[in-house]
Each structure stands twice: as structure tokens, then as C-alpha cells.
Design goal:
The chain is α/β, with parallel strands linked by helices and 366 residues long. It folds into two domains: 245 residues, 3-Layer(aba) Sandwich (Rossmann fold), CATH 3.40.50.10540; 86 residues, 2-Layer Sandwich (formyl-coa transferase, domain 3), CATH 3.30.1540. Helices cover 38% and strands 15% of the residues. The protein has 14 helices and 13 strands. The chain has a six-stranded parallel sheet with strand order 5-2-1-6-7-8, sandwiched between helices. The protein has a three-stranded antiparallel sheet with strand order 9-10-11. Helix 1 packs across helix 8. The radius of gyration is 24 Å and the shape is elongated. 36% of the residues are buried. Pfam families: CoA_transf_3.
């Protein structure tokens, strides 16, 4: 797929956001062919540049998300910086910001003025909350929505689920706004609060609780059924057994040598718990590779559980991963988020302010 044939080819995005939600959105738009101009504080840049570990002096996350972007250094607290951003917004299709409500206005860049200057602009805002200027982070948002305790009974989760999902939802919002602009000729304000990020994960669970509890997500899909859980094998490594359909669990029980458990796959009561314990004890008799080899000819939903070190080397992910360039080398990373429609740019993430002069000169001529 050539750059010109990508869905967002020719679309100019000015990204004034900071940290992960905006980075996820930027990566989505980059993969779909948009030109992303990342505006950063010229003194420090986006904090993701400094988040360890550093690869060739740059944060690994920044390298992964901002491949192919351009970097412009602007101090928005100064009149000159604010004026430069106004010029960029006037020539852009999309502007993304993640400041607390009212911050853009204090910079002298109120949303309505930017939309008046450029009626076709899609202005995407990523505040923490939709109706207040309160602050929060991923941990707060997963905690407020119930997702955190649905995932773990104590402690926290080492993945930024609210931030990532907010970025993905924001991408859908931006694409929908661009589609609307194609019909009406007008852009507009799109707000995607970070508190909304966890909500798709808990929609079904909330509905089940409203209906009295004890539903699929809590019981069967929550690991109480023998047919849908992770089992530890003799070498300490795990198998994910997703045999929800009775035919799959029946075949699994037969192949691994426990046909007596075939009728208990979806039992979430005491008998099911005993069956799960018996299956785990049985699987502990051999290493994981033994069971995978035994199951391979039978086309069942049973796969290895990898940690983050092993996952990039999983052969079934080969078509979804690729070499990620760094300033002085590369590492194996995630490929396009939209493999059928996108292509991750080949150019490595930009240096801080690398494109400032060229971009500002270009937009001054428009």
C-alpha cells in the first residue's frame, strides 16, 4: 500500500496533546496516512520522550508511537508561540489537545476562535472529565468506573487501559467528524474525556449487575468455568483454554486424557471448581510444549500465555509486528493498528523541534 492510497493521505493533524492518550490517537492517524505535526515545549518536549527505558536517549514509548511524525517546538505561553499555533490550526484538518478546560483560552487560543478561523477544523479535546477541570490519571479513571477492581482485587494494573482506550475512541470520533465534514463542509469540537476510556470494558458488567449479577462476564468469562481459564503446566508456563463451546471442551478433555471431565466445562459451581483443579493437576504432569504438540492437530482454542518478553516472538504475531526504527537502530514492535488499511511510517520518531523551521515557514506561505 502506497502512502497516497492510505485513507487519510493529505490530512494534516496538529497534535498539541501530551502523554499516552494523544500518543495512541497520533499513532492511529499516522498509520492511516495522516501527516502529524507534534507541537512540543521546546525546552522539555513531551514527557514520553523522557520516560524510561531510553533507547538512544529517547523514551521507548515515544519511539513506538510517534514514528513518522514531525516535531515543532513552540512555547504556547508566549504570544509568538500562540500565534504560531494559530497559524498551524488555520491550515490543519485536525487539532488535538489534552489541556485542562480553559487552558487554550488562557494561551489566547479559545476553541471557538480557532473554529471561526478555520470552519473545517476538527478540534479534538482529551480532557480528564467531561464537565469539570478536575485532574486525574489512568489509575483514577479505572478506579472510578469499577474496572480496576474487576481486574484485580487489590493493587493496580501495570497497563494504562483508560489512556489507551481513550486514544482509540478519540480516533473513532475524529474519523466520524471528518466524515461529517465531508457531508457538511464544517468541522467542530470533538471531546473524548479520559474517564470514558474504561466504559466499553464495563458496559456488559454494569448491565449484569443491574440485572441481579451472576452473569456471563462475572462467572463463565471470569474464570469460574473449567472450559475458560488459564492452566499452569508442569514447567510453570501457562495455557489459555478458551473452550466455551461444549464441542471444544469435550474434544480438549478427550485429547489431554481426562474424558471424565468432559461434561463439566461450563459448570461454575463446586463441581466445576473441582473439575478445574483436577484438570490443572493433570496438566502439571507435563511441560506446556508437550500439551501444545498433542493438541496441535485438533484445531482447538488453546494457546500459550506469554509474558511481555516472549509475546513479540510469537510466530502468529509475525504479520502484526515489524521492525521499529530508532535513531541508531531498531527493535521488534507493533505494526499498524489497522493492518488492512494502514501502514506504519518508515521514518523514526522525530527529534525535539526537528521540523520547527521548515513547518513554520511552510504554513506562513499558505
Amino acid at each position: 500500500m502506497t502512502s497516497d492510497s492510505l485513507p487519510l493521505a493529505g490530512t494534516v493533524v496538529v497534535d498539541v496533546s501530551r502523554m499516552l492518550p494523544g500518543a495512541v490517537l497520533a499513532r492511529c492517524l499516522l498509520d492511516l496516512g495522516a501527516r502529524v505535526i507534534k507541537v512540543e515545549d521546546p525546552a522539555t518536549g513531551d514527557l514520553m520522550r523522557h520516560a524510561p527505558p531510553l533507547i538512544d536517549g529517547v523514551g521507548a514509548g515515544f519511539i513506538a508511537f510517534f514514528r513518522g511524525a514531525e516535531s515543532v517546538g513552540l512555547d504556547l505561553r508566549t504570544p509568538a508561540g500562540a500565534a504560531a499555533l494559530r497559524s498551524l490550526a488555520a491550515g490543519a484538518d485536525v487539532l488535538v489537545e489534552s489541556f485542562r478546560p480553559g487552558t487554550m483560552a488562557r494561551f489566547g487560543l479559545p476553541e471557538q476562535e480557532l473554529l471561526t478561523d478555520n470552519p473545517g477544523l476538527v478540534l479534538c479535546s482529551l480532557p480528564g472529565f467531561s464537565v469539570s477541570s478536575a485532574v486525574g490519571h489512568d489509575l483514577n479513571f479505572t478506579g472510578l468506573t469499577g474496572l480496576l477492581r474487576a481486574l484485580r482485587t487489590e493493587g493496580i494494573v501495570g497497563l494504562q487501559l483508560a489512556d489507551v482506550t481513550s486514544g482509540l475512541l478519540a480516533c473513532s470520533s475524529v474519523l466520524a467528524a471528518l466524515l461529517r465534514r465531508a457531508r457538511t463542509g464544517r468541522g467542530g469540537l470533538v471531546q473524548q474525556p479520559l474517564l470514558s476510556g474504561p466504559l466499553p470494558f464495563v458496559t456488559w458488567a454494569w448491565a449484569e449487575r443491574a440485572g441481579g449479577g451472576g452473569g456471563m462476564s462475572e462467572a463463565v468469562l471470569g474464570g469460574r468455568a473449567p472450559a475458560y481459564r488459564a492452566y499452569r503446566c508442569g514447567d510453570g508456563r501457562e495455557l489459555s483454554v478458551g473452550c466455551l463451546e461444549p464441542k471444544f471442551w469435550f474434544a480438549f478433555a478427550q485429547v489431554v486424557g481426562r474424558p471424565d471431565l468432559a461434561g463439566l466445562g461450563l459448570d461454575t459451581g463446586p463441581a466445576g471448581q473441582e473439575a478445574a483443579a483436577a484438570m490443572e493437576q493433570h496438566l502439571a504432569g507435563h511441560p506446556r510444549d508437550h500439551w501444545l504438540a498433542l493438541l496441535a492437530p485438533h484445531d482447538l482454542p488453546v494457546w500459550p500465555v506469554h509474558d511481555l518478553d516472549a509475546a513479540p516472538h510469537e510466530p502468529r504475531l509475525d504479520d502484526l509486528t515489524e521492525s521499529t526504527p530508532t535513531p541508531a537502530g531498531s527493535f521488534r514492535g507493533v505494526g499498524p493498528f489497522f493492518p488492512s488499511l494502514g501502514r506504519t511510517p518508515e521514518r523514526s520518531a522525530p527529534g525535539l523541534g526537528e521540523h520547527t523551521d521548515a513547518v513554520l515557514a511552510e504554513f506562513a506561505r499558505r
